[in-house]
Write a sequence for this structure.
């Protein structure tokens, strides 16, 4: 899987887009100036980069997202598991829980997720 990442400023901008999309590029110019202090050229540069990463599309002055925040987080998590744990989810969980103790509530939620894996909706 290709690694999908965002820098801090890209992420701040993408959060704005996720909040308001679909949105006109004109409105994004206004919002990025207001919330991030960006010039129009900066906004379009970052917009282009996010488009190249497959997160959004800017067609005829309208920006729409191609990947939800949840889909992005899932892709990032899969990258971490693939790169650092050779694709082994149990190894990832073992590493995570070795220093981060789970509450009984967390353990119950994880068990429920595992129990529901593979079940048809």
């Amino acid at each position: 899987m290709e690694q999908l990442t965002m820098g801090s400023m890209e992420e701040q901008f993408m959060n704005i887009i996720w909040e308001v999309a679909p949105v006109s590029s004109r409105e994004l110019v206004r919002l990025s100036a207001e919330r991030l202090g960006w010039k129009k050229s900066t906004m379009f540069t970052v917009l282009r980069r996010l488009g190249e990463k497959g997160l959004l599309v800017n067609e005829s002055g309208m920006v729409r997202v191609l990947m939800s925040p949840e889909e992005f987080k899932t892709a990032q998590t899969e990258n971490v598991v693939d790169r650092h744990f050779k694709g082994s989810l149990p190894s990832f969980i073992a590493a995570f829980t070795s220093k981060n103790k789970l509450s009984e509530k967390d353990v119950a939620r994880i068990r429920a997720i595992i129990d529901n894996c593979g079940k048809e909706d």
In short: The longest helix spans residues 69-85. The chain has two domains: 8-69, 88-121.
